[in-house]
């Protein structure tokens, strides 16, 4: 293989001086000729853009070589279809992977600019809501790092996830505008545009059995490509995002009649498709625009890959050998019907051949079992918007149900439960069933989640296809979440575990031998302290609250959701506050309770929880009795960049979802890898973390998934739970009575009434167990050598949660594509 960017990194001082000079020249060239700015008048924003453009050239070198190579060798390629990619900033990651962090910083310093100070100008690309979108971003980077040829397909939203401001303790949503300064990473591909149809009718052609779909409306999907470079610049993947453009930007008829609004109506309607990301995690919006988004990007992506394949091979029967399509949740589930349509209607294949190819190519990842989160679309809406696809779905369903009925034991099967159409709620298409039936493999994202898929939501389908569901536990990229985010720890780790660590993160287990070494512990304490000082500065800037870096930093950062139980955390915080006030002279372990996260704008309960956290913060932070022992902060506008600062500074990681409801979690992995101790339930990937770090290195509490199930079937009266749980009544009464909202005493009456009426998420049931677990944490914190022994065990045993490992599992067991690079680089 040819020498690549980071392998070509300088070995001598002279070479590195040359490199810095070259980079300086490249950056100044971009500033001058691409931005038209003279260095003497360039603003920080111009400098960042110039650096990105210069670095992008290095990425492009890698990208073109690897794309060319995979094309030449005809290797199988992975197409990752995802409505969300939560990328965050890209510069630091790209520099890090190219081995250019130091040289570029030096080049900028020579030019009189502090790179660290201006990097934060790059906007966060927030084209995702949370875990599902961040996972897609980690996987694109990990595919580039493990040498799996891949393309990620999604939508280039003009506006990503809203920005969050906290105003008087309440969340206010502000539109996000990441493209306002253009996006220097992307390449617009005007030549790669596809027509996407909607509505209209299906008519028979003169050939018997053949039909054509005549859409009434069509929009263009225009491609924008961003290269994602992998570790050591050995390979790169492509993120191809689609933008909707009108076929006719202006109606001249309307214009000539003076109807200026009507003249751009078609354009507005078309371009609405890629206007904004749905903040879709309170309830699926169920709106037509969302369905249009889903079909828009699915169709564009499939047309693109089908065309590319045909151009290269001139046939379709080998599609499953050359193409693996991964559906990131059901959002692209229409791929099953669209692939059938493309192969049958546009390429003339038979139904049977098209089905063999479609189901041999597609696989599907499920990311949640919450019944209210499973997508369904009204048949009537589908018939109106996608009449041909609805026909195809009926066709798939009829053949599927028929096949089951005729199979051995088929008479006993409850066909209504496996049907793609839910007839009990006014005829709706079950997108998860469609994805399941149209895929060769379906996976969950943690061991527990995959097992629950088999036992609950997909049990009837699992009985028909017992080999289809498998598990691939999620992973995170160690490049961003350890090497980039935590320089101090990375330096120590490479010293202790060897330089090979950065190529094979699982070598991190060599740290385990040093768990009891006081010298090692001292160094880790110093690193954590530095990270906490940085975070304390951010907290002060963002909230005005001064926190002591010597205190225990206890962190819960994630989307605000009842099942994630921020409410349990804040209620226990109140109990702790009461306890400190009633025994002010006890030596309480000083704590800072740190929260961050966004609530969907239409999710009232989640917003009330944010409000409560802020109200509790106001009371606690102004109370002189608890001043040195307890602080509560809510950091506004949680995003990827905030996570990169917060996680390396955490002592405790809160992973306290109601067991059975968090499919995996990935924040839990990032914290543990950075050495935080987890307080968590036996849920999602927490279980696998506990298995790897050992039960004596994690603080587990609460009901198991099975216990939650049993309690839901046979609920204990909440009055009884409250009466038998110490401190709980007092805490609830205080919140409900307005002790934390003196200006509006009724503010939380509804929230507390809700809990008393129905403790669906087991907040009351798990309260005491959680409180005791927190007091166990206090005890551990008091014994610092023990604490740091545990912390070391967490870092040492979490290398397995690398996205590289996850990608290798997908590559071997689902995609059947060889990873280009072995574990060691
Ligand atoms: C959607 C909805 C909509 C209805 C109400 C409840 C609800 C809850 C969650 C969602 C989002 C579902 C998709 C998702 O983001 N799942 C997350 O995927 C991560 C990556 O696999 C995983 O780590 C998280 O546990 C899982 O919640």
Automatic annotation (TrEMBL):
The modification N6-(pyridoxal phosphate)lysine is found at residue 670. Its cofactor is pyridoxal 5'-phosphate. Keywords: Allosteric enzyme, Carbohydrate metabolism, Glycosyltransferase, Pyridoxal phosphate, Transferase. Pfam families: Phosphorylase. One of its GO terms (biological process) is glycogen catabolic process. It is an enzyme of class 2 (transferase). GO terms for molecular function: glycogen phosphorylase activity; pyridoxal phosphate binding. Its EC number is 2.4.1.1. GO terms for cellular component: cytoplasm. Gene3D superfamilies: Glycogen Phosphorylase B. InterPro entries: Glycg_phsphrylas (IPR011833), Glyco_trans_35 (IPR000811), Pyridoxal_P_attach_site (IPR035090). Belongs to the glycogen phosphorylase family. Allosteric enzyme that catalyzes the rate-limiting step in glycogen catabolism, the phosphorolytic cleavage of glycogen to produce glucose-1-phosphate, and plays a central role in maintaining cellular and organismal glucose homeostasis. Phosphorylase is an important allosteric enzyme in carbohydrate metabolism. Enzymes from different sources differ in their regulatory mechanisms and in their natural substrates. However, all known phosphorylases share catalytic and structural properties. This is Alpha-1,4 glucan phosphorylase. It comes from Bosea vaviloviae.
């Amino acid at each position: 293989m040819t020498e690549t960017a980071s392998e070509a990194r300088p070995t001598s001082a002279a070479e590195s001086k040359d490199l810095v000079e070259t980079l300086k020249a490249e950056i100044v060239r971009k500033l001058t000729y691409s931005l038209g700015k003279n260095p003497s008048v360039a603003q920080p924003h111009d400098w960042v853009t110039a650096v990105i453009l210069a670095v992008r050239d290095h990425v492009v070198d890698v990208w073109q070589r690897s794309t060319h190579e995979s094309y030449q060798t005809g290797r199988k390629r992975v197409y990752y279809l995802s409505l969300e990619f939560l990328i965050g900033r890209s510069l630091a990651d790209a520099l890090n992977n190219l081995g250019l962090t130091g040289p570029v910083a030096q080049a900028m310093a020579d030019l009189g600019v502090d790179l660290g100070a201006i990097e934060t100008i790059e906007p966060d690309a927030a084209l995702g809501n949370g875990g599902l979108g961040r996972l897609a971003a980690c996987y694109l980077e990990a595919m580039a790092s493990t040498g799996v040829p891949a393309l990620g397909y999604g939508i280039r939203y003009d506006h990503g996830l809203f920005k969050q401001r906290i105003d008087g303790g309440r969340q206010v949503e502000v539109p996000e505008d990441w493209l306002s300064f253009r996006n220097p990473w992307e390449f617009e591909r005007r030549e790669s545009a596809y027509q996407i149809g909607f509505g209209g009718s299906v008519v028979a052609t003169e050939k018997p059995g053949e039909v054509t779909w005549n859409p009434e409306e069509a929009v263009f999907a225009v491609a924008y490509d961003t290269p994602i470079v992998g570790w050591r610049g050995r390979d790169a993947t492509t993120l191809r995002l689609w933008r909707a453009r009108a076929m006719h930007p202006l109606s001249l008829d309307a214009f000539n009649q003076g109807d200026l609004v009507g003249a751009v109506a078609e354009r507005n309607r078309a371009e609405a498709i890629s206007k904004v990301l749905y903040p879709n995690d309170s309830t699926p919006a169920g709106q037509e625009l969302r369905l249009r988004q889903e079909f828009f990007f699915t169709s564009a992506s499939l047309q693109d890959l089908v065309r590319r394949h045909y151009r290269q091979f001139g046939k379709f029967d080998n599609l499953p050998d050359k193409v693996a399509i991964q559906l990131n949740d059901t959002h692209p589930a229409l791929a099953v019907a669209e692939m059938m349509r493309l192969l049958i209607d546009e390429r003339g294949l038979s139904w049977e051949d098209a089905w063999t190819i479609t189901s041999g190519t597609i696989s599907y990842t499920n990311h949640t079992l919450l019944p209210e989160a499973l997508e369904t679309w009204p048949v009537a809406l589908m018939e109106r918007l996608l009449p041909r696809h609805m026909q195809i779905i009926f066709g798939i369903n009829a053949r599927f149900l028929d096949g089951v009925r005729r199979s051995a034991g088929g008479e006993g099967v409850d066909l209504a439960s496996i049907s793609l159409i839910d007839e009990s709620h006014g005829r709706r298409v079950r997108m998860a069933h469609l994805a399941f039936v149209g895929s060769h493999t379906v996976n969950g994202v943690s061991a527990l989640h995959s097992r629950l898929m088999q036992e609950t939501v997909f049990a009837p389908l699992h009985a028909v296809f017992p080999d289809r569901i498998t598990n691939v536990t999620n992973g995170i990229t160690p490049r961003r979440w350890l090497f980039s985010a935590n320089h101090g720890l990375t330096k120590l780790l490479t010293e202790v575990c060897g330089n090979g660590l950065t190529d094979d993160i699982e070598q991190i287990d060599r740290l385990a031998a040093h768990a009891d070494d006081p010298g090692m512990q001292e160094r880790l304490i110093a690193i954590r302290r530095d990270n906490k000082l940085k975070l304390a500065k951010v907290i002060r800037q963002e909230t005005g609250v001064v926190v002591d870096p010597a205190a225990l930093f206890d962190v819960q950062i994630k989307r605000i959701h009842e099942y994630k139980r921020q409410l349990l955390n804040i209620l226990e915080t109140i109990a702790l506050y009461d306890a400190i006030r009633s025994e002010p002279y006890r030596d309480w372990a000083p704590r800072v309770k740190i929260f961050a996260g966004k609530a969907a704008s239409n999710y009232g309960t989640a917003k009330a929880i944010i409000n409560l956290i802020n109200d509790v913060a106001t009371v606690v932070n102004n109370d002189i009795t608890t001043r040195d022992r307890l602080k509560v902060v809510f950091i506004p506008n949680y995003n990827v960049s905030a996570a990169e600062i917060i996680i390396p500074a955490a002592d405790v990681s809160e992973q306290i979802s109601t067991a059975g409801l968090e499919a995996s979690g990935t924040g839990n992995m990032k914290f543990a890898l950075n050495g935080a101790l987890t307080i968590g339930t036996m849920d999602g990937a927490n279980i696998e973390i506990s298995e790897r770090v050992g039960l004596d290195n994690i603080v587990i509490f609460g009901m198991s998934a099975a216990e939650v199930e049993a309690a839901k079937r046979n609920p204990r009266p909440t009055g009884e739970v409250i009466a038998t749980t110490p401190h709980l009544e007092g805490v609830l009464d205080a919140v409900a009575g307005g002790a934390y909202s003196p200006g509006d005493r009724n503010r939380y009456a509804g929230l507390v009434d809700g809990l008393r009426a129905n403790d669906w998420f087991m907040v009351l049931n798990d309260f005491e167990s959680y409180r005791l677990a927190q007091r166990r944490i206090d005890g551990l914190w008091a014994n610092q050598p023990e604490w740091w022994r545990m912390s070391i065990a967490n870092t040492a045993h979490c290398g397995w949660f690398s996205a590289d490992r996850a990608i290798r599992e997908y590559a071997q067991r689902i995609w059947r594509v060889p990873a280009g690079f072995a574990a060691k680089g």
